[in-house]
Amino acid sequence: MNFGDFGNIKDLLSQVKDAQKHVTQIQKELREMRVEVQTGAGIVTAIVDGEATLIDIKLDTSLLENNELKNLPNLIVKAVQEAQKKAKKESVSKARSLGINLPGLGL
After folding, report:
1. Given a cut of 50, is residue 77 above it in pLDDT?
2. Domain residue extents for the chain
3. How far apart, in whole angstroms, are the C-alpha atoms of residue 25 and residue 47?
4. CB of 40 within 8 A of CB of 67?
5. Confidence class of residue 83 from pLDDT cuts 50, 70 and 90?
6. Fewer Cβ atoms within 10 A, N terminus or C terminus of the chain?
7. Dihedral of the alpha carbons of 92, 94, 97, 103, in degrees to the nearest 10
């Protein structure tokens, strides 16, 4: 056995620790990121974090006309879906800019 190989293992373990810290920092940034999308000319606003988790829904019912109330559920779903899609794209873009590939996001 060549004891010089232990130096390589030590370097590798150090690199793994650095990568873990980096990933932890990115995860924190994604949880703190906010992405906002409006639908229905501002009637519905969906806010998600960088992990595409719904944080808040805002409704401006003053912009609703009587006949639009039945479309409100569709506007909510669309706003949430668009915000999640936008958050995923921004997250992937951020990760790629740091040289990290995020598999499984389908983007």
Report:
1. yes
2. 8-97
3. 22
4. no
5. very high
6. N
7. -30
Q: What is d(CA 90, CA 83) in angstroms, rounded to the nearest whole number?
A: 10
Residue 105 gets which letter from DSSP? S
Return the percent helix, strand and coil in the chain, to nearest 5.
60, 15, 25
pLDDT of residue 18: 83
Task: Give the alpha-carbon dihedral of 56, 102, 99, 55, to 10 degrees.
Answer: 10
pTM: 0.72
Rounded distance between C-alpha atoms, residue 91 and residue 22, angstroms: 14
Architecture field, domain 8-97: 2-Layer Sandwich (3.30)
* CA distances from residue 16 to 4, 13, 22, 47 in whole angstroms, order as listed: 19, 5, 10, 34
Residue bearing tokens 């479309």: 71
